């Protein structure tokens, strides 16, 4: 038993987070996503609004910590508006809602006067695009009749990238990939992500989506790129804002944004890939 505790402690030290709570949280999130899609897909849209709203709370606190306050309430309202518009109108609804809410958010900032307007407007625009707009592509994935299989394929691919990159990096990582941005991320972990996510792509596309395996391999490679870049972007934000984590909501993960980072950039990429496959292949 002491040996098991020692091994777990060493893994936690090298990974920079607690392993068992992280696994428990990940499995719980997957179960919640599956249950909402399996029983009533509209509940998944509600789940996205909740997750994005929690992310907005974290990013608003982070910007306030840096001296750039933004309106969390206004962004949460925009999130609900973008989600409803996307569910009702698809990609066109997402585009129109974004075009409507962005100027409304900027107009709302005028109430605080001109001082710091540019920094507040920039932070607000980044928050709108980074969170509810990109998360809108999760709604686009879930919206069709086969939304369950599309979203679960998405979960498998992102989960494979994160999980196997994490374990391979912990066990074999020696060469930092971006030490100034994310010191724990290694080239060895990236190789693990590539190998296992490509395999997951082949299997999920062939057996779940009933598409050709080589398409899944290509999409898996794309997911490694988008998910890794999403993780690095969020890490760069934390470093610039002098934060270790965006929050502490999820044990073993940090905040909601620490869980959404790889999701936000991957959702539009997978949606586009599936649209191209359905149209041309």
Descriptive notes:
With 281 residues, the chain is mostly helical. It has two domains: 40-143, no CATH class; 146-281, no CATH class. 80% of the residues lie in helices and 3% in strands. It has nine helices and two strands; from the N terminus they run ααααααββααα. The mean pLDDT is 89.
Give the secondary structure arrangement, pairings included:
Blueprint lengths: L1 H14 L3 H21 L1 H25 L6 H38 L7 H26 L4 H26 L3 E3 L3 E5 H21 L5 H28 L15 H25 L1
Antiparallel strand pairs: 1-2
Question: Top keywords for this entry?
Answer:
2 strands; 281 residues; mainly alpha; 3% strand; two-stranded antiparallel ribbon; single chain; 2 domains
Put the structure in a nutshell.
By secondary structure, this protein is mainly α.
- Domain module tally: 2
Distance between the termini: 54 Å
Our estimate of the beta-strand percent is under 5%
**Which value, in Å, is the CA radius of gyration?**
19 Å
Based on secondary structure, the structural category is mainly alpha
The rough form would be described as globular
Total beta-strand segments:
2
Order of helices and strands: HHHHHHEEHHH
Number of DSSP helical runs: 9
Give the mean pLDDT: 89
User: What percent of residues adopt helix (DSSP H or I)?
Assistant: over 70%
What can be said about the biggest beta sheet?
Answer: 2 strands, antiparallel
**Strand line-up in the sheet with most strands:** 1-2
Low-confidence stretches: none
């Amino acid at each position: 038993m002491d040996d098991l505790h020692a091994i777990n402690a060493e893994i936690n030290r090298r990974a920079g987070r607690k392993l068992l709570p992280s696994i428990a949280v990940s499995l719980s999130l997957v179960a919640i996503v599956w249950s909402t899609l399996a029983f009533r897909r509209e509940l998944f849209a509600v789940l996205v609004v909740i997750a994005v709203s929690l992310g907005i709370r974290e990013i608003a606190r982070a910007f306030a910590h840096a001296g750039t306050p933004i309106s969390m309430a206004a962004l949460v309202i925009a999130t609900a508006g973008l989600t409803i518009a996307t569910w009702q109108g698809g990609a066109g609804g997402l585009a129109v809602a974004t075009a409507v809410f962005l100027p409304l958010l900027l107009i709302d900032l005028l109430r605080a006067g001109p001082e710091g307007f540019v920094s507040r407007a920039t932070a607000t625009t980044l928050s709108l695009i980074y969170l509810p707009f990109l998360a809108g592509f999760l709604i686009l994935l879930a919206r069709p009749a086969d939304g369950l299989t599309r979203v679960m394929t998405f979960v498998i691919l992102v989960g494979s990238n994160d999980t196997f990159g994490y374990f391979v990096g912990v066990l074999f990582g020696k060469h930092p990939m971006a030490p100034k941005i994310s010191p724990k991320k290694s080239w060895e972990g990236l190789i693990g992500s590539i190998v296992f996510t490509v395999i997951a792509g082949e299997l999920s596309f062939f057996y779940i989506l009933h598409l050709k395996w080589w398409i899944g391999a290509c999409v898996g490679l794309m997911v490694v790129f988008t998910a890794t870049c999403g993780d690095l972007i969020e890490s760069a934000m934390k470093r610039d804002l002098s934060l270790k984590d965006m929050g502490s909501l999820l044990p073993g993960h940090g905040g909601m944004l620490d869980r959404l980072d790889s999701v936000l950039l991957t959702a539009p990429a997978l949606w586009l890939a599936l649209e191209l496959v359905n149209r041309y292949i």
